[in-house]
Amino acid sequence: MWWCLAAVAHDHCGVVARVWQPEVALRYQEEGMQGDGDNDKMFLLGHPSLARTATSEYVLALLPDSPLPLQHYPSQTHNRESVSEGSDRILCLISTSPKYHETRAQHVAATWAPHCKRAVFLTTQKDPLLPDILITPGANTYNQLWNKVTQGFEWAYNHRDEFDWVVKADDDTFLLVENLQAAVRGLDPLQPQATGVHLRTWDRGSTYLNGGAGYVLSRGAVIKLVESGLQKHQCDHNLSLGTGEDVNMADCLAYLGVELLDSRDSSGRHRFNIYPPQELVDPRQAHNIRHLWLKQISIFPYKFGYAELSDEVISFHYVDSQSMYLLYYLVYLLNPQGNLRSYSPSPLQPTPQPASLSKSPPVYP
Protein backbone atom coordinates (compact mmCIF):
# COMPACT_ATOMS: atom_id res chain seq x y z
CA MET A 1 0.00 0.00 0.00
CA TRP A 2 1.67 3.20 -1.17
CA TRP A 3 1.22 6.40 0.76
CA CYS A 4 1.50 9.89 -0.73
CA LEU A 5 3.79 11.80 1.62
CA ALA A 6 4.72 14.77 -0.55
CA ALA A 7 4.34 18.24 0.91
CA VAL A 8 3.02 19.55 -2.40
CA ALA A 9 0.39 18.33 -4.83
CA HIS A 10 1.25 15.95 -7.66
CA ASP A 11 -0.97 14.63 -10.43
CA HIS A 12 -0.13 11.02 -9.72
CA CYS A 13 -0.68 11.60 -6.02
CA GLY A 14 -4.20 12.83 -6.35
CA VAL A 15 -4.37 15.34 -3.47
CA VAL A 16 -2.41 17.99 -1.66
CA ALA A 17 -0.69 16.16 1.16
CA ARG A 18 -0.17 17.22 4.76
CA VAL A 19 2.31 19.53 6.48
CA TRP A 20 5.32 17.55 7.66
CA GLN A 21 5.73 16.62 11.30
CA PRO A 22 8.97 18.41 12.40
CA GLU A 23 11.13 15.33 13.01
CA VAL A 24 10.02 13.76 9.74
CA ALA A 25 10.51 16.99 7.80
CA LEU A 26 14.03 17.40 9.18
CA ARG A 27 15.05 13.88 8.18
CA TYR A 28 13.39 14.34 4.78
CA GLN A 29 15.40 17.53 4.13
CA GLU A 30 18.65 16.05 5.44
CA GLU A 31 18.40 13.30 2.85
CA GLY A 32 17.91 15.81 0.04
CA MET A 33 14.41 14.72 -0.91
CA GLN A 34 12.65 16.93 -3.44
CA GLY A 35 9.01 16.39 -2.46
CA ASP A 36 7.86 14.26 -5.38
CA GLY A 37 5.99 10.98 -5.30
CA ASP A 38 8.96 8.73 -6.12
CA ASN A 39 11.09 10.28 -3.37
CA ASP A 40 8.23 9.92 -0.93
CA LYS A 41 7.97 6.20 -1.68
CA MET A 42 11.70 5.72 -1.18
CA PHE A 43 11.60 7.69 2.05
CA LEU A 44 8.69 5.69 3.40
CA LEU A 45 10.35 2.36 2.63
CA GLY A 46 13.62 3.52 4.15
CA HIS A 47 12.10 4.90 7.35
CA PRO A 48 8.99 2.89 8.24
CA SER A 49 9.01 4.05 11.86
CA LEU A 50 8.93 7.71 10.85
CA ALA A 51 6.28 6.99 8.26
CA ARG A 52 4.13 5.27 10.85
CA THR A 53 4.49 8.26 13.16
CA ALA A 54 3.40 10.52 10.35
CA THR A 55 0.50 8.26 9.51
CA SER A 56 -0.92 8.46 13.02
CA GLU A 57 -0.61 12.22 13.17
CA TYR A 58 -1.78 13.46 9.80
CA VAL A 59 -4.16 12.70 6.99
CA LEU A 60 -2.25 10.70 4.39
CA ALA A 61 -3.85 10.16 1.03
CA LEU A 62 -3.60 6.81 -0.71
CA LEU A 63 -2.34 6.77 -4.26
CA PRO A 64 -5.09 6.17 -6.81
CA ASP A 65 -3.73 2.73 -7.67
CA SER A 66 -3.66 1.53 -4.06
CA PRO A 67 -5.14 -1.96 -3.64
CA LEU A 68 -7.41 -0.70 -0.85
CA PRO A 69 -8.57 2.91 -1.25
CA LEU A 70 -9.99 4.12 2.03
CA GLN A 71 -13.14 5.80 0.83
CA HIS A 72 -16.54 5.65 2.45
CA TYR A 73 -18.95 3.45 0.57
CA PRO A 74 -22.16 5.18 -0.50
CA SER A 75 -24.99 4.74 1.96
CA GLN A 76 -27.13 2.55 -0.29
CA THR A 77 -29.61 0.47 1.65
CA HIS A 78 -31.57 -1.27 -1.17
CA ASN A 79 -35.05 -1.46 0.33
CA ARG A 80 -33.76 -1.30 3.87
CA GLU A 81 -35.02 1.56 5.99
CA SER A 82 -32.61 4.45 6.25
CA VAL A 83 -31.39 6.00 9.49
CA SER A 84 -34.49 7.31 11.18
CA GLU A 85 -35.28 10.57 12.93
CA GLY A 86 -37.90 8.87 15.11
CA SER A 87 -37.55 7.01 18.40
CA ASP A 88 -34.71 4.82 17.17
CA ARG A 89 -31.83 7.24 16.71
CA ILE A 90 -28.66 5.23 17.32
CA LEU A 91 -25.44 6.57 18.84
CA CYS A 92 -22.51 4.20 18.25
CA LEU A 93 -19.64 4.27 20.75
CA ILE A 94 -16.72 2.35 19.26
CA SER A 95 -13.89 1.38 21.61
CA THR A 96 -10.42 1.38 20.04
CA SER A 97 -6.81 2.37 20.75
CA PRO A 98 -4.05 4.04 18.71
CA LYS A 99 -2.39 0.76 17.76
CA TYR A 100 -5.62 -0.33 16.04
CA HIS A 101 -6.55 2.93 14.29
CA GLU A 102 -5.06 1.87 10.95
CA THR A 103 -5.72 -1.87 11.05
CA ARG A 104 -9.24 -1.83 12.50
CA ALA A 105 -10.95 1.43 13.39
CA GLN A 106 -10.55 3.26 10.08
CA HIS A 107 -12.28 0.36 8.32
CA VAL A 108 -15.23 0.64 10.69
CA ALA A 109 -15.33 4.35 9.87
CA ALA A 110 -15.32 3.53 6.15
CA THR A 111 -18.14 0.97 6.29
CA TRP A 112 -20.95 0.68 8.82
CA ALA A 113 -20.24 3.60 11.16
CA PRO A 114 -21.88 6.25 8.89
CA HIS A 115 -25.17 4.37 9.26
CA CYS A 116 -25.34 5.41 12.91
CA LYS A 117 -26.98 8.71 13.75
CA ARG A 118 -23.50 9.49 15.07
CA ALA A 119 -20.46 7.26 15.56
CA VAL A 120 -17.84 8.27 18.13
CA PHE A 121 -14.51 6.46 18.52
CA LEU A 122 -13.26 6.12 22.10
CA THR A 123 -9.47 6.30 22.08
CA THR A 124 -6.54 8.08 23.71
CA GLN A 125 -5.10 10.01 20.75
CA LYS A 126 -6.43 12.21 18.00
CA ASP A 127 -6.08 10.75 14.53
CA PRO A 128 -7.35 12.17 11.23
CA LEU A 129 -8.04 8.61 10.09
CA LEU A 130 -11.06 8.70 12.40
CA PRO A 131 -13.72 11.35 11.78
CA ASP A 132 -15.23 11.67 15.28
CA ILE A 133 -13.08 10.98 18.34
CA LEU A 134 -13.64 11.25 22.08
CA ILE A 135 -10.31 11.34 23.87
CA THR A 136 -10.36 9.01 26.88
CA PRO A 137 -7.08 9.75 28.74
CA GLY A 138 -5.12 6.87 30.21
CA ALA A 139 -7.46 4.11 29.04
CA ASN A 140 -5.52 1.87 26.68
CA THR A 141 -5.20 -1.42 28.54
CA TYR A 142 -7.82 -4.09 29.16
CA ASN A 143 -8.03 -3.21 32.85
CA GLN A 144 -8.78 0.42 31.92
CA LEU A 145 -11.63 -0.34 29.53
CA TRP A 146 -14.24 0.44 32.18
CA ASN A 147 -12.95 4.01 32.44
CA LYS A 148 -12.92 4.35 28.65
CA VAL A 149 -16.45 3.06 28.19
CA THR A 150 -17.94 5.06 31.06
CA GLN A 151 -16.36 8.23 29.68
CA GLY A 152 -18.16 7.41 26.45
CA PHE A 153 -21.49 6.99 28.22
CA GLU A 154 -20.95 10.23 30.13
CA TRP A 155 -20.50 11.94 26.77
CA ALA A 156 -23.69 10.25 25.55
CA TYR A 157 -25.51 11.47 28.66
CA ASN A 158 -24.47 15.05 27.91
CA HIS A 159 -25.90 14.63 24.38
CA ARG A 160 -28.89 12.51 25.40
CA ASP A 161 -31.44 14.66 23.58
CA GLU A 162 -29.78 13.72 20.27
CA PHE A 163 -30.15 9.93 20.63
CA ASP A 164 -32.61 7.29 21.77
CA TRP A 165 -30.35 4.24 22.01
CA VAL A 166 -26.60 3.88 22.56
CA VAL A 167 -24.67 0.85 21.37
CA LYS A 168 -21.16 0.15 22.60
CA ALA A 169 -19.10 -1.83 20.07
CA ASP A 170 -15.46 -2.74 19.47
CA ASP A 171 -13.23 -1.87 16.54
CA ASP A 172 -13.66 -5.41 15.17
CA THR A 173 -17.45 -5.41 15.46
CA PHE A 174 -19.67 -5.24 12.38
CA LEU A 175 -23.02 -3.66 13.16
CA LEU A 176 -26.15 -3.68 11.02
CA VAL A 177 -27.59 -0.44 12.31
CA GLU A 178 -30.91 -0.73 10.46
CA ASN A 179 -31.59 -4.14 12.01
CA LEU A 180 -30.91 -2.69 15.45
CA GLN A 181 -33.30 0.15 14.70
CA ALA A 182 -35.97 -2.32 13.65
CA ALA A 183 -35.49 -4.34 16.83
CA VAL A 184 -35.91 -1.37 19.19
CA ARG A 185 -38.62 0.37 17.18
CA GLY A 186 -41.80 0.61 19.21
CA LEU A 187 -39.96 0.46 22.54
CA ASP A 188 -39.90 3.50 24.81
CA PRO A 189 -36.28 4.72 24.93
CA LEU A 190 -36.96 6.49 28.24
CA GLN A 191 -37.49 3.12 29.94
CA PRO A 192 -34.19 1.88 31.46
CA GLN A 193 -33.47 -1.17 29.31
CA ALA A 194 -30.44 -2.95 27.86
CA THR A 195 -29.84 -5.80 25.43
CA GLY A 196 -27.11 -7.80 23.73
CA VAL A 197 -25.92 -11.41 23.68
CA HIS A 198 -26.41 -13.01 27.09
CA LEU A 199 -23.49 -14.83 28.72
CA ARG A 200 -22.81 -16.15 32.21
CA THR A 201 -19.70 -15.32 34.24
CA TRP A 202 -17.48 -18.29 35.02
CA ASP A 203 -17.08 -17.57 38.73
CA ARG A 204 -20.47 -16.23 39.87
CA GLY A 205 -22.87 -17.41 37.19
CA SER A 206 -24.34 -13.93 36.81
CA THR A 207 -25.61 -12.70 33.44
CA TYR A 208 -23.76 -10.09 31.39
CA LEU A 209 -23.95 -8.70 27.86
CA ASN A 210 -20.84 -9.45 25.81
CA GLY A 211 -19.00 -6.26 24.86
CA GLY A 212 -17.40 -7.54 21.66
CA ALA A 213 -20.72 -8.40 20.05
CA GLY A 214 -21.97 -5.02 21.23
CA TYR A 215 -24.54 -4.15 23.87
CA VAL A 216 -27.27 -1.51 23.73
CA LEU A 217 -28.59 0.86 26.37
CA SER A 218 -31.75 2.93 26.08
CA ARG A 219 -31.58 6.63 26.84
CA GLY A 220 -33.30 5.86 30.14
CA ALA A 221 -30.60 3.32 31.00
CA VAL A 222 -27.86 5.82 30.13
CA ILE A 223 -29.47 8.39 32.43
CA LYS A 224 -29.61 5.87 35.29
CA LEU A 225 -26.08 4.68 34.66
CA VAL A 226 -24.58 8.16 34.74
CA GLU A 227 -26.76 9.94 37.31
CA SER A 228 -26.97 7.10 39.83
CA GLY A 229 -24.19 4.68 38.98
CA LEU A 230 -21.37 7.10 38.13
CA GLN A 231 -22.20 10.52 39.58
CA LYS A 232 -23.62 9.15 42.84
CA HIS A 233 -21.09 6.28 42.86
CA GLN A 234 -23.77 3.66 43.50
CA CYS A 235 -21.89 1.11 41.39
CA ASP A 236 -18.44 1.67 42.87
CA HIS A 237 -18.68 -1.28 45.26
CA ASN A 238 -19.44 -3.58 42.31
CA LEU A 239 -16.35 -2.74 40.28
CA SER A 240 -13.34 -4.96 39.77
CA LEU A 241 -10.39 -3.75 37.69
CA GLY A 242 -9.50 -7.32 36.80
CA THR A 243 -12.97 -7.89 35.37
CA GLY A 244 -14.09 -7.11 31.83
CA GLU A 245 -15.91 -3.83 31.33
CA ASP A 246 -18.96 -5.71 30.07
CA VAL A 247 -19.21 -7.67 33.33
CA ASN A 248 -18.80 -4.47 35.35
CA MET A 249 -21.49 -2.84 33.23
CA ALA A 250 -23.89 -5.74 33.80
CA ASP A 251 -23.32 -5.66 37.56
CA CYS A 252 -23.91 -1.92 37.61
CA LEU A 253 -27.07 -2.07 35.48
CA ALA A 254 -28.44 -4.93 37.58
CA TYR A 255 -27.94 -3.01 40.80
CA LEU A 256 -29.66 0.03 39.27
CA GLY A 257 -32.67 -2.03 38.21
CA VAL A 258 -32.19 -1.77 34.44
CA GLU A 259 -34.35 -4.29 32.59
CA LEU A 260 -32.50 -6.81 30.44
CA LEU A 261 -34.21 -7.59 27.12
CA ASP A 262 -33.93 -10.87 25.21
CA SER A 263 -32.17 -10.00 21.94
CA ARG A 264 -32.98 -13.27 20.12
CA ASP A 265 -35.42 -13.38 17.24
CA SER A 266 -38.83 -15.10 17.36
CA SER A 267 -37.16 -18.43 16.47
CA GLY A 268 -34.69 -18.18 19.34
CA ARG A 269 -31.71 -17.40 17.09
CA HIS A 270 -29.06 -14.93 18.20
CA ARG A 271 -29.07 -11.47 16.65
CA PHE A 272 -25.91 -10.35 18.46
CA ASN A 273 -23.03 -12.69 17.58
CA ILE A 274 -19.66 -13.26 19.20
CA TYR A 275 -18.11 -14.75 16.05
CA PRO A 276 -17.82 -13.61 12.41
CA PRO A 277 -20.32 -15.05 9.92
CA GLN A 278 -17.85 -17.38 8.19
CA GLU A 279 -17.61 -19.37 11.44
CA LEU A 280 -21.26 -19.19 12.37
CA VAL A 281 -22.58 -20.52 9.05
CA ASP A 282 -20.36 -23.64 9.15
CA PRO A 283 -22.19 -26.43 11.04
CA ARG A 284 -18.89 -28.25 11.58
CA GLN A 285 -17.89 -25.50 14.02
CA ALA A 286 -20.40 -26.93 16.48
CA HIS A 287 -17.85 -29.67 17.21
CA ASN A 288 -14.84 -27.36 17.32
CA ILE A 289 -13.27 -27.44 20.78
CA ARG A 290 -12.45 -23.73 20.43
CA HIS A 291 -16.15 -22.94 20.85
CA LEU A 292 -16.71 -25.12 23.90
CA TRP A 293 -16.34 -22.13 26.23
CA LEU A 294 -19.21 -20.34 24.50
CA LYS A 295 -21.55 -23.29 24.85
CA GLN A 296 -20.70 -23.49 28.53
CA ILE A 297 -21.37 -19.85 29.39
CA SER A 298 -24.10 -18.89 26.92
CA ILE A 299 -27.43 -18.32 28.67
CA PHE A 300 -29.30 -19.49 25.58
CA PRO A 301 -28.17 -22.34 23.26
CA TYR A 302 -25.53 -21.25 20.77
CA LYS A 303 -25.67 -23.22 17.51
CA PHE A 304 -23.84 -23.17 14.20
CA GLY A 305 -25.02 -23.47 10.59
CA TYR A 306 -27.10 -21.49 8.12
CA ALA A 307 -30.37 -22.61 9.69
CA GLU A 308 -29.26 -21.36 13.09
CA LEU A 309 -28.15 -17.91 11.94
CA SER A 310 -30.85 -15.27 12.29
CA ASP A 311 -31.93 -13.30 9.23
CA GLU A 312 -32.34 -10.37 11.63
CA VAL A 313 -28.67 -10.28 12.67
CA ILE A 314 -27.56 -7.08 14.39
CA SER A 315 -23.85 -7.71 14.94
CA PHE A 316 -20.82 -9.92 14.34
CA HIS A 317 -17.57 -9.86 16.31
CA TYR A 318 -13.94 -10.66 15.40
CA VAL A 319 -14.43 -9.22 11.91
CA ASP A 320 -11.11 -8.42 10.20
CA SER A 321 -10.69 -5.43 7.90
CA GLN A 322 -11.10 -7.38 4.66
CA SER A 323 -14.26 -9.06 5.91
CA MET A 324 -15.55 -5.65 7.02
CA TYR A 325 -15.66 -4.50 3.38
CA LEU A 326 -16.99 -7.83 2.14
CA LEU A 327 -19.83 -7.76 4.65
CA TYR A 328 -20.68 -4.19 3.75
CA TYR A 329 -20.87 -5.11 0.09
CA LEU A 330 -23.04 -8.17 0.70
CA VAL A 331 -25.38 -6.37 3.09
CA TYR A 332 -25.74 -2.94 1.52
CA LEU A 333 -24.55 -3.00 -2.08
CA LEU A 334 -25.37 -6.41 -3.51
CA ASN A 335 -28.92 -6.51 -4.86
CA PRO A 336 -29.87 -10.12 -5.75
CA GLN A 337 -32.78 -10.43 -8.13
CA GLY A 338 -35.84 -12.48 -7.29
CA ASN A 339 -35.48 -12.16 -3.51
CA LEU A 340 -39.12 -11.85 -2.45
CA ARG A 341 -38.66 -12.45 1.27
CA SER A 342 -40.39 -9.90 3.43
CA TYR A 343 -38.63 -8.39 6.43
CA SER A 344 -40.75 -8.28 9.56
CA PRO A 345 -38.43 -8.24 12.57
CA SER A 346 -39.57 -9.69 15.86
CA PRO A 347 -39.65 -7.18 18.75
CA LEU A 348 -37.35 -7.45 21.72
CA GLN A 349 -38.92 -9.18 24.72
CA PRO A 350 -38.19 -9.26 28.44
CA THR A 351 -35.59 -11.88 29.21
CA PRO A 352 -37.18 -15.10 30.53
CA GLN A 353 -36.20 -16.23 33.99
CA PRO A 354 -33.73 -17.23 35.32
CA ALA A 355 -31.58 -15.30 32.86
CA SER A 356 -32.60 -11.88 34.20
CA LEU A 357 -30.00 -9.95 36.13
CA SER A 358 -30.10 -10.07 39.88
CA LYS A 359 -30.69 -6.66 41.48
CA SER A 360 -28.62 -7.45 44.57
CA PRO A 361 -24.95 -6.47 44.62
CA PRO A 362 -22.74 -9.41 43.59
CA VAL A 363 -20.43 -11.01 46.09
CA TYR A 364 -16.89 -11.42 44.79
CA PRO A 365 -14.75 -14.28 46.06
TrEMBL record:
Coiled coil: none
Residue stretches making up the Fringe-like glycosyltransferase domain: 88-264
GO cellular component entries: membrane
Membrane topology: Single-pass type II membrane protein
Keyword flag Nucleotide-binding: yes
Keyword Glycosyltransferase (UniProt): yes
Compartments it resides in: Membrane
Enzyme Commission number, as recorded: 2.4.1.122
Record's keyword terms, sorted: Glycosyltransferase, Membrane, Nucleotide-binding, Signal-anchor, Transferase, Transmembrane, Transmembrane helix
InterPro entries in UniProt: C1GALT1/C1GALT1_chp1 (IPR026050), Fringe-like_glycosylTrfase (IPR003378)
Pfam family, one: Fringe
Any GO molecular function: glycoprotein-N-acetylgalactosamine 3-beta-galactosyltransferase activity
Pathway: Protein modification; protein glycosylation
Record region (Disordered): 344-365
Similarity remark: Belongs to the glycosyltransferase 31 family. Beta3-Gal-T subfamily.
The protein, known as: N-acetylgalactosaminide beta-1,3-galactosyltransferase
